[in-house]
Amino acid sequence: MLDGYEQWTIGRAEDVLLVQCLNELGFEASVNPDTGTSEETLTHFGPHREYRRYGMARVDLAEEYGFEVPLDDGPRREPYLLAEGFDLEEARTVVDGFSHTGDGIETPSGAPVPEGGCHHQARLRIDPESAAPGPEGYVDLDEGGELPGTHGLAEGIHSESFFAVVDSPEVGAAEADWRGCVRETGYEGAPPGAGEGLGRDDAPLSADCMDASGYLDVFVAQECAFQEAEVEENLGALEERAGELREQVETAREVLDW
């Protein structure tokens, strides 16, 4: 799977291509510089979201933020800005390629909206096989399709492995050792749920005990054993998609002139 920065790079390239599409259809649009970067996500979740996979595991972050993640929970920001006089709802319709009001889709230039809208066209530039939106403008990946930056098979193994071993005897024993380490808090749950059962001041102890008790090592070893078998069985398909993702990152960098 791509790491968080690579996924952000692809997303930013899609923003640039989306804006190009809007401008070609007569809008005056620019890329929104205030849609955030990958920095916060990488800092608090890690390149592959591993910092929080098993609960709060970083003592330094626990000391500064407790169990919380200081991410922006404000309203969704559009990836583009429109010049004065252009209608945002009209632009959203063109981006989605679907009118949620049932009205026809119009563009300032009078040119027709490309199939799937500007967002789909941007995705196709990054990945020519990108899944298309359905009749109501939404992409359904249940049929096995992919979007730029995604690796459904690897993501499935990544998710399945966690739930396959979380209740294993080995993880259970390590979990008991962790509870012994945080005994002074009186918490009787598991590390992934500690944020709901412990107070902010307990976060550094919880994180330190995850390492001291061996909980992290045991959980990771159990997951790796599960994943290795799945990787061996699906190696060809995994490598094929991984190669496609590398190409997508390179295409994104070309779009961004990086």
From TrEMBL:
The keyword Coiled coil applies. Keywords: Coiled coil. Residues 228-255 form a coiled coil. This is Uncharacterized protein. The lineage of its organism: Bacteria, Bacillati, Actinomycetota, Actinomycetes, Streptosporangiales.
